[in-house]
């Protein structure tokens, strides 16, 4: 497969630029996200507002990715759209500093996530256009690695800034402009735009139908897997509940956060490692299917209802490994299957399918956990995970 391609450097200025942009952009908005619940409480807004803000913003971002994916394939130059998206997100996130009511935060978060949705397909299409196909795994894996490092650094920076500013939430929000604008500069200065051949001006529906059948089959596997892919914030709840009887709530909560940090470290490492591996095996789909299989093992271990700290650590490590593999390989496999002139639509559609999966899985696992028990909830996830892995293995690329 990939090894037959001619040798060409993959770690170029575009890969570096996209990686640095992801790091600084994620650092910016994760710093804001870390203090957002406390800020809302300080201005008199409760959990209902937080749920509404996150739900509306995520929904807008998903639809924006789908629309932007179609739109970016029709542009002669994709780079300005991506730069605009990063700048818009940075400014909208910093606008929280001027919020006095919850609806101000709602507008700011919705605008920021709209910017994320607009820029995502263009960014991924530009990355794939400047990388040889035999290095898609490493390129997309490195981007995920850098993004995750930003997600780790954001909350730590928020804690430091709160101490340094006398717990001024508004100063923390204003500070996010710095990494946000560094992200814009990195993308503008480093990312190259490769010239593309003239592309047919298709309608949205015709553009969807024009995607290769193998990619549509990939989306089925991604969708089945995604329907069981619960939010990993549930892992923190699971660990807190499991550890509280023996250690008390405060200690259990601290240990759960520590476990989640461990999860993020393995998430970051696996994104690049799995991408590298996929560039050196005969079938990239096998690595993605293995990641889906690891998710199934994770769900089975969750069914035990364990209160062992060591087994919980294994669960969090496995969860980090599979999520890194999933994200890096879904992107690189999509880039391999779909012609470059359709990459925008492909990445936008993939993001939309993942968003629907996230929505369904949150409802499914949360409902089964509440209505029945933890074993029922994660058994359902395990079944969907293994079914998704089987569908990916049967994929003809």
Briefly characterize the structure:
79% of the residues lie in helices and 0% in strands.
Structure notes:
By secondary structure, the protein is mainly alpha-helical. It is 79% helix and 0% strand.
List the helices and strands and how they pair.
Elements: H1 13-42, H2 47-72, H3 79-94, H4 102-129, H5 136-164, H6 169-175, H7 177-190, H8 204-210, H9 213-226, H10 233-247, H11 249-278, H12 284-302, H13 309-337, H14 343-371, H15 374-393
Strand content: under 5%
Order of helices and strands: HHHHHHHHHHHHHHH
The count of β-strands is 0
Mean pLDDT across all residues, rounded? Answer: 87
Structural class: mainly alpha
What is the name of the CATH class of the largest domain?
Mainly Alpha
**Corresponding CATH architecture of the largest domain:** Up-down Bundle
Calculate Rg over CA atoms.
21 Å
How many discrete domains? Answer: 2
